[in-house]
Amino acid sequence: MRILGLGTDIVEISRVTDMIERHAESFTERIYSSYEIDYCSSKKNASQHYAGRWAAKEAVMKAFGTGFIKGIHWNEIEVISQQSGQPEVRLSGETSTFARQRGIDQILLSISHGKEYATATAIVCSE
């Protein structure tokens, strides 16, 4: 396995909460997949989970080394949870094509959140 990039992000949970409250579905549907919306909404502290996924998406983009460019879409970077609770990145659409063209085979992800902040680190790899 070869590491192609590393990205990390930290976000204030209150910032994400404010965006959700101000823009509701227009925000969540642009940023999150339907799976992520269902998952986060089902949690007691939904804002922490939304913020963790926001940080994860930012970390993945930083690991790509591109930032948010044309062809990369927020809701095409999906964070799912394995039964163990471990987060996993699933790409779709143009974002998946972008990753394949750059030889990205795997994305390792860690997310953490506390009372005020959520953070994530992503490592993009090729085999």
Strand content: 25-35%
Number of helical segments? 4
Strand segment count: 5
Oligomeric grouping of the chains: single chain
Helix content: 40-55%
Low-pLDDT stretches are none
Q: Return the string of H and E elements.
A: EHHHEEHEE
Strand order of the largest sheet: 1-5-4
Strand-pairing-aware structural class: alpha+beta
Provide the CATH topology: Ribosomal Protein L22, Chain A
Shape: globular
The Cα radius of gyration reads 14 Å
Q: Could you say what the CATH architecture is?
A: Alpha-Beta Complex
- Total of domains: 1
The main sheet comes to: 3 strands, antiparallel
The CATH class name reads Alpha Beta
Distance between the first and last residues' Cα: 4 Å
Q: Superfamily at the CATH H level? A: 4'-phosphopantetheinyl transferase domain
Provide the residue-averaged pLDDT. Answer: 93
Could you explain how this protein is built, in words?
The protein is of the alpha+beta class and 127 residues long. It has one domain: Alpha-Beta Complex (Ribosomal Protein L22, Chain A), CATH 3.90.470. Helix content is 43%, strand content 31%. It has 4 helices and 5 strands. It has helices spanning 13-31, 34-41, 46-64, 93-101; strands at residues 2-12, 77-81, 87-91, 106-113, 117-126. A 3-stranded antiparallel beta sheet has the order 1-5-4. The chain has a two-stranded antiparallel sheet with strand order 2-3. A hairpin with a 3-residue loop joins strand 4 and strand 5. Helix 1 (13-31) packs across helix 3. It is globular and about 40 Å long. 32% of the residues are buried. GO terms for molecular function: holo-[acyl-carrier-protein] synthase activity; magnesium ion binding. Pfam families: ACPS. Residues 5-120 form the 4'-phosphopantetheinyl transferase domain.
